[in-house]
Amino acid sequence: MDKLRIDKWLWAARFFKTRSLAADEVSRDRVSVNGQVVKPSREIKPGDRIELRQQGPTREWVVLALSKQRGPAPQRSEEHTSELQSLAYLVCRLLLEK
Prior knowledge:
Oligomer: single chain
Number of strands: 6
């Protein structure tokens, strides 16, 4: 699989309980792909950087794999980098910008 809709990926990767919740968040401009605000139909591929703005700081992930099926949580976490890795990337990026 080369590409997958962002709302399907967010649901399959267990960021949201339902696909409609994922689509709602994307429609509210709370999700960016590679720095651009997107629509729920936007297709993503491995290597894309996903930013999710909810309560608190913006969280970032890098897509490592795509899957249409929602599986067990441990398996889904292998589809994206951990939040700590993304946080370390963000801190390094902020330090370099100063």
